[in-house]
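Service request form, structural biology core

Requester: graduate student, group of Dr. S.
Request type: structure prediction, single chain
Budget code: on file
Notes: please return the result as structure tokens.

Sequence provided:
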Amino acid sequence: MPYFTVIIPTYNRAHLIGKAIESVLAQTFSDWELVIVDDGSADNIREVVEAYSDNRVRYIYQTNAERSAARNNGISHSQGKFICFLDSDDRYEIDRLERLHSSIQEQNEPIALFFTGIKFEDGSEVLSYFSAPKKETESIYDFIIRATFATPRSCIHRDILIKHQFNPKFRIGEDTELWIRIAQGFPVIYLADQATVVITEHEDRSINLRKNNSALEQLQILRYIFKAPHPGKNISRNVKRDSLSNCYFNIAKHNMLNNKRAKSLFWILKAMFKSPLHKQNKHRLLCLSNLVVGRIMEEYK
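Core staff response, request fulfilled:
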């Protein structure tokens, strides 16, 4: 049994996945397996993966069923004590698994969900991002919604993922929905000193707001999470309100990026009315006034 299983779901990413695979092969901690789940790709990704001769790397093919099903398939084929995730267009820093192992050992290997900070790579520039620590008065549910940490930042004891897996109905926000279910019965531990995952910015990312109106799918899952009997019903009213407001504004940004003025106006107004005291409302008002006179703000062109 390896200590870590790293799962990479992928779809038509033969031209990108090499960097992700090589970042796992280069890890300073060697007790791992890499499970790559091909979600029905039409490119030569199998050939790319099988060119790596390391016997810790396994390739699994499935008929296209989206990323949640692909991750669940990877979990079912995993053997590691702790399960990590990596997207096929991102990479780990060289000491990602070593640092995770040290932190888990220091805490006596609890059956828990761990997550770290993150880095964004845009060209030659790499910027770090750390989620704010949970306030003493804030519930873990509120914190998860505010932190919005994606799967590459997570490391989860396999016993948890045998019980709780990704909901295959969703492909955007599916990670947040899972974390909230996990938090109902297990610790969620933030490793504040680590930002060892690098997200690479590129045009084909699924959350690219110009190409994909992913916020509409985010809206669907928020409504699902906030409704009983889901444990997300425990999220505070203020956090629910602000999350929906942010989602509405992201829909507006998609429409601004695609020069859909009327729809942009509608969703900005909806965002502002949903959360009248939102800290970004001055910026939203500026966007609104520019749209009224027929201008798209420079940052959304």
